[in-house]
From TrEMBL:
GO terms for cellular component: plasma membrane. It is a single-pass type I membrane protein. It is found in: Cell membrane. Belongs to the RLP family. SMART domains: LRR_TYP (SM00369). Residues 79-293 form the Disease resistance R13L4/SHOC-2-like LRR domain. Residues 6-55 form the Leucine-rich repeat-containing N-terminal plant-type domain. This is Uncharacterized protein. Its main location: membrane.
C-alpha cells in the first residue's frame, strides 16, 4: 500500500519548516546525527522514507522517528505535523527547536502511544493539552532545560494518563509540584525518571508502584528527603526494581544496612551525595546482577571492599569522595576485569599502583581526579616509558579520562593520541609542561578537551583545528604564546572557547563559522580592534575580552548579540562613545563591564526594566555629565561601579530604590551637593559597600542612610563569592590603599565597607554609625568633620580599619575603642585631639603615623603623658597628609593573617601558596577558575 498523498504532502511541508542545525548536542554513545529528511522527495512513496513507519494495510503514517536529524527551527501551531492524525509514535528528540514552546496542538494527536521530545530545546510551560493523550504508554520530555510544569498540569497528567508505562521529565522544572502527588501515578508504571526537576519535600510512600523496574529521583538540588521507614518499605516492596537512583536525596537518617533488603534483580544503584553515614553492607558489591554501584560524595560512608570473590558482572564503580580504603593492587584489579567505569576521585588510597590500571582493558571511563598523584604520567602509570605506551594502547575503549586536580608533571605522552575513542579528556589543574603533542590531532571523535591550569608553553598547535567535533576547548591559565590558530575556524561545532590567562598575541581571529556561545580570551596581549565577525555570533552568551590591548571603538553591532548574558571588555584601550543601545539590547544580560578603558561621552540612558542586569561597571573611563535615571529600572542590580570618571552630578538619590543593590562605588568623580539621606525605610537595605570618596560632596554625613544599612548591621551572613557561578565569572571591585589600587577579583559577601573620604563633609560623626556592627572598613578621612570621636564606634566589633585622619576632630580618643579587637589599621592623624592614647590590645600595635599632627596627644607610641598631657609637643618629621589612608604596607601585611578585609579573596591559592590572594592577583597575574564538572 502506497503512502496516502495528503500525508506525503504534509511531511514534505513539515520538512520545509526547518533549516539544518549547525550543531546539536549529542549525548555519549549516541550515533552521529544526520539529516534523515534529505531524501524525502515528491513523487516517491513516503512509507519508504527514512524515519517513516506506515500501516501497511491503510498506508497511513503511524510512526515518525526523526531523532538526531539536525532539524533546526521552531514548531508553530500551524505546522503540517499536526495533520498526521494517525500517528502512534512520534520521536523528535535530539534536534534544536530553538527555544520554542510545546504548542497545544500536540494534544490533537489522540492516537499517540509514544511521544519523545527530549533534548530538543523546548522552553516554557508544558501545555495542558498533552494530558489529552490518554493512550500514551511512554512520555519523554526530558533534558529541555527551559521547560516547566505547574502543579495543575502534573495533577492532570497523573489523572488522565492512566496507561503510562514510562515517564521521563528529567530536567523539567517541577519546583511547584509537591512530591506527594507521586502517590497517584499509574500503578502500571515500569519506569519513572524525575532527575534534576528541582522538586522539594519528602518522598512519599510510592511502594504501591510495584511494577517499577527503574526509579530515578536524583539530583533535585538537595530538595528531596526520605525517611527511614519509607525507604525501608520501598526497598522491600519494589521487588522488580533493577535501577534505583536517589543521588542527592537526603538519606542522612537511613541506615545503610537497610539496603540488604533490596531486590535481588538490582543491577544499578546510584546513591551519590546522599549523606549516608556508617558502614556500607559488603554483600551488595557481591550481588550477582549488580552492574553499577555509585556511592559518590558520601563523605562519612565507609566499608571494606572484598579482597576476593567480587561480582564479575560489575561494570561501573564510583567511590569518589568516600572513606572506603582503596588498595589499588593486583587483588583489586583482578576483581574488576569487566569494569567499564571506574571513579576514584579524592579517595582514601592506601596503595596506588597506577600502572595496574592498564589491565582494565574494557575501561570506557577513568576518573582519578583530586588525589594529589604526582610525577610524570609514564612514571605514575608504568615502571618504564615503554611499558606506559603499551598500557595506554591497551585502553582501546577509553572514552573519558579525568586526571584533573592532581600534581602530574612533565609532558603529555604522545601515546595518548592512540586512544581513538576519547570523548572527554580533562588534564586541567596539574603541572604538565612543554608543548601539546601533535598526536592529539588523531582524536577525531573528541568533543571535550580541557588542558587549563598547567604550564604548557609554545604556540597552540594549529592541528587542534582538525578536531572537527570539538564542542568545548579550554586551554586557559598556561603559558601559550603566539596567535590564535586560524584553523579554529574549521571547528564548526565549537560552543565554548577558553584561552584566558596566557601570553597570546596578534589579532582576534575570525569566528564567523563557529556556533560559539562562550568566548573568554581575557588576560592576554591581543591587539587590534574587535572584529566584526565576533559581533555576528547570534547565539553568543558570554564574551570576555578583558585585559588585552584592544583599541578602537565598540560598534553598535554588538547590540545584535541579544542572547548575551556576560559582556566584559574591561581593561583595554577602547575609546569613543559607549553605544546607547547597550542599555536594553538583551533581556538576558546580567554582566556589563567596560571599566578601565578610554570611553568618553555619557552613560547610556536606555536601561530597560525588562533586563536582568546584576553587575554594571564603567569604572576608570572619561565619562561625563550625569548618572542616568534609567539605571533605576535595573531592579536586579547588585553592583554599580561608576568610579574614576568625570561625572558631574549631584548624588543620585534615585539609586536607593534598587532593592538588590549591594555595592555602590561612585568614587573619584565630580559629585557635589548634599547627600540628604533616606526617603524611605528600605533605602539601600542590602548595601554592603558604599564608596563616595574623592568627590566634592558637602553637608553632614548621611545618618539617615546609616540607619537603613541593614546588611551592615547583620554579620551572621553565609560566606559566598559574588558572581555568575554558571560561568565561573567573579565580580570585581577595587579598594584604594595609600594610592595603590587593590583589585578585589573575588568579593566576599562578608565584606562591608564605607568610604566617604576626600570630600567636604561637615558636622559631627553620627552615633548611628555604631549600629553597623558588620562593618569591616570605615574611612571618613580628609573631610571637615568636627566634634568628638563617638564612643559608639566601640559597637563596630568587626571593624578592621578605621581612618578618621585629616579632619578637625577634638577631644580625647575614647578608651572604649580598645574593645575593637580586630582593628588592624587605626588612623586619626592631623586632627586636634588631645589627652592620653588608649593602651592595651590592638592599640599596642599602632605606630606614630597613626597619631601625628595632633599636638595634644600623648602616650605610647608618642611621648609619655604628664598628668594626662603631652610632655612636649613634637613636630612631625614627615608630612603624610597627602596620603588619604596614610599607613604603610608593613602594618597592612602584618594584619592579613586574621583579617577579612586583607584576606578577602581567600581560597584555593591562599591555602596552597600561603599568600594573600590580593598579593597573588597583583604580582602573579589574575587567573579565572575552571568551570566545575557537575555529576549527572
Amino acid at each position: 500500500m502506497l503512502c496516502q498523498r495528503d500525508q506525503s504532502l504534509a511531511l514534505l511541508q513539515f520538512k520545509e519548516t526547518f533549516s539544518i542545525a549547525k550543531a546539536v548536542f549529542v549525548p555519549p554513545y549516541y550515533p552521529k546525527p544526520y539529516l534523515k529528511t534529505r531524501y524525502w522527495k515528491e513523487g516517491t512513496d513516503c512509507c519508504w522514507w527514512d524515519g517513516i513507519t506506515c500501516d501497511m494495510e491503510t498506508g497511513n503514517v503511524i510512526g515518525l522517528h526523526l531523532s538526531n536529524s539536525l532539524l533546526y527551527g521552531p514548531i508553530y501551531s500551524n505546522n503540517p505535523l499536526f495533520s498526521l492524525r494517525h500517528l502512534r509514535k512520534l520521536d523528535l528528540s535530539l534536534n534544536d527547536f530553538n527555544h520554542s514552546r510545546i504548542v497545544p496542538q500536540f494534544g490533537q494527536l489522540f492516537k499517540l502511544t509514544h511521544l519523545n521530545l527530549s533534548y530538543s530545546g523546548f522552553v516554557g510551560q508544558i501545555p495542558s493539552e498533552i494530558t489529552y493523550l490518554s493512550g500514551l504508554l511512554s512520555l519523554d520530555l526530558s533534558w529541555n532545560y527551559g521547560l516547566t510544569s505547574e502543579t495543575t498540569i502534573f495533577t492532570k497528567l497523573v489523572q488522565n494518563l492512566t496507561q503510562l508505562r514510562e515517564l521521563d521529565l528529567s530536567f523539567v522544572n517541577m519546583s511547584e509540584v509537591a512530591p506527594s502527588s507521586l502517590m497517584n501515578l499509574s500503578s502500571s508504571l515500569t519506569s519513572l525518571k524525575l532527575h534534576s526537576c528541582e522538586m522539594q519535600g519528602k518522598i512519599p510512600d510510592i511502594s504501591r508502584l510495584s511494577k517499577l523496574v527503574s526509579l530515578d529521583l536524583s539530583w533535585n538540588y538537595g530538595g528531596l528527603t526520605i525517611e527511614p521507614m519509607v525507604f525501608d518499605k520501598l526497598v522491600r516492596n519494589l521487588t522488580k526494581i533493577r535501577d534505583l537512583a536517589f543521588g542527592d536525596v537526603n538519606m542522612s537518617m537511613v541506615e545503610p544496612s537497610s539496603l540488604t533488603n533490596i531486590s535481588s534483580h538490582l543491577s544499578s544503584l546510584r546513591l551519590g551525595i546522599c549523606e549516608l553515614k556508617g558502614k556500607f553492607p559488603d554483600n551488595i558489591i557481591q550481588r550477582t546482577n549488580l552492574q553499577l554501584l555509585d556511592l559518590f560524595g558520601n563523605e562519612d560512608l565507609n566499608g571494606s571492599l572484598p579482597r576476593h570473590n567480587w561480582n564479575n558482572s560489575l561494570r561501573s564503580l564510583s567511590l569518589s569522595f568516600t572513606q572506603f580504603p582503596i588498595y589499588l593492587d593486583y587483588d583489586f584489579i583482578s576483581n574488576l576485569k569487566s569494569l567499564e567505569t571506574l571513579e576514584l576521585s579524592s579517595c582514601n588510597f592506601r596503595v596506588s599502583n597506577l600502572k595496574l590500571l592498564g589491565k582494565l582493558t574494557r575501561l570506557i571511563l577513568l576518573d582519578i581526579n583530586s588525589n594529589n598523584f604526582n610525577g610524570q604520567i609514564p612514571s605514575s602509570l608504568g615502571s618504564f616509558k615503554r611499558g606506559q605506551i603499551q598500557i595506554l594502547r591497551s585502553l582501546k575503549r577509553l572514552s573519558y579520562l579525568y586526571l584533573f586536580n592532581n600534581n602530574f608533571s612533565g609532558q603529555i605522552p604522545s601515546s595518548l593520541g592512540s586512544l581513538k575513542r576519547l570523548f572527554y579528556l580533562d588534564l586541567s589543574n596539574n603541572n604538565f609542561s612543554g608543548q601539546i603533542p601533535s598526536s592529539l590531532e588523531s582524536l577525531k571523535r573528541l568533543p571535550y578537551l580541557d588542558l587549563s591550569n598547567n604550564n604548557f608553553s609554545g604556540q597552540i598547535p594549529s592541528s587542534l583545528g582538525s578536531l572537527k567535533r570539538l564542542f568545548y576547548l579550554h586551554l586557559s591559565n598556561n603559558n601559550f604564546s603566539g596567535g590564535i590558530p586560524s584553523s579554529f575556524k574549521n571547528l564548526k561545532q565549537l560552543y565554548t572557547l577558553g584561552l584566558q590567562n596566557n601570553q597570546l598575541t596578534g589579532r582576534l581571529g575570525p569566528f564567523q563559522d563557529n556556533p560559539l556561545r562562550y568566548i573568554d580570551l581575557s588576560n592576554n596581549m591581543l591587539h587590534g580592534s574587535i572584529p566584526s565577525s565576533i559581533l555576528k555570533l547570534a547565539d553568543l552568551n558570554v564574551l570576555i575580552l578583558s585585559s588585552n590591548k584592544l583599541i578602537g571603538e565598540v560598534s553598535s553591532a554588538v547590540c545584535k548579540l541579544n542572547s548575551l548574558q556576560i559582556l566584559d571588555l574591561s581593561n583595554n584601550s577602547l575609546n569613543g562613545f559607549i553605544p546607547q543601545c547597550l542599555g536594553n539590547f538583551s533581556n538576558d544580560l546580567s554582566v556589563l563591564h567596560l571599566g578601565m578603558n578610554n570611553f568618553q561621552g555619557t552613560i547610556p540612558e536606555t536601561f530597560s526594566a525588562r533586563g536582568s542586569l546584576r553587575y554594571l561597571n564603567f569604572n576608570g573611563n572619561q565619562l561625563q555629565r550625569r548618572i542616568p535615571l534609567s539605571i533605576s529600572n535595573c531592579r536586579n542590580l547588585e553592583i554599580l561601579d561608576l568610579g574614576n570618571n568625570n561625572i558631574d552630578d549631584s548624588f543620585p538619590h534615585f539609586l536607593e530604590t534598587l532593592p538588590e543593590l549591594q555595592i555602590l562605588i561612585l568614587k573619584s568623580n565630580k559629585l557635589h551637593g548634599f547627600v540628604k539621606g533616606s526617603s524611605t525605610n528600605y533605602s539601600f537595605s542590602k548595601l554592603r559597600m558604599f564608596d563616595l570618596s574623592d568627590n566634592m560632596l558637602s553637608g553632614p554625613l548621611p545618618s539617615g542612610y546609616f540607619n537603613n544599612f541593614k546588611a551592615m548591621m547583620n554579620f551572621d551572613v553565609k560566606m559566598e563569592y559574588m558572581g555568575q557561578p554558571n560561568y565561573s565569572y567573579d565580580y570585581s571591585v577595587s579598594l584604594t590603599l595609600k594610592g595603590v589600587v587593590i583589585e578585589l577579583v573575588r568579593i566576599q559577601t562578608l565584606l562591608t565597607t564605607i568610604d566617604l573620604s576626600g570630600n567636604k563633609f561637615t558636622g559631627e560623626i553620627p552615633q548611628s554609625i555604631g549600629k553597623l556592627k558588620a562593618l569591616k572598613l570605615l574611612n571618613l578621612s580628609h573631610n571637615q568633620l568636627t566634634g568628638n570621636i563617638q564612643p559608639s564606634l566601640r559597637e563596630l566589633s568587626n571593624l578592621e580599619s578605621l581612618d578618621l585622619s585629616s579632619n578637625s576632630l577634638v577631644g580625647r580618643i575614647p578608651m572604649q575603642l580598645t574593645d575593637l579587637t580586630f582593628l588592624q589599621v587605626f588612623r586619626v592623624s592631623d586632627n586636634r585631639l588631645e589627652g592620653p592614647i588608649p593602651e592595651g590590645k590592638q592599640f599596642n600595635t599602632f605606630d606614630t603615623s597613626s597619631y601625628e599632627g595632633n599636638l595634644g596627644l600623648c602616650g605610647f607610641p608618642l611621648e609619655k603623658c604628664n598628668n594626662g598631657e603631652r610632655q612636649k609637643p613634637e613636630i612631625s618629621k614627615e608630612d603624610d597628609s597627602n596620603s588619604k589612608f596614610g599607613f604603610g604596607w608593613q602594618p597592612v601585611v602584618a594584619g592579613y593573617g586574621c583579617g577579612v578585609i586583607f584576606g578577602i579573596a581567600m581560597g584555593y591559592r591562599v591555602f596552597k601558596t600561603r599568600k594573600p590572594i590580593w598579593f597573588v592577583r597583583i604580582f602573579e597575574g589574575r587567573r579565572r577558575p575552571k568551570p566545575k564538572r557537575f555529576k549527572n
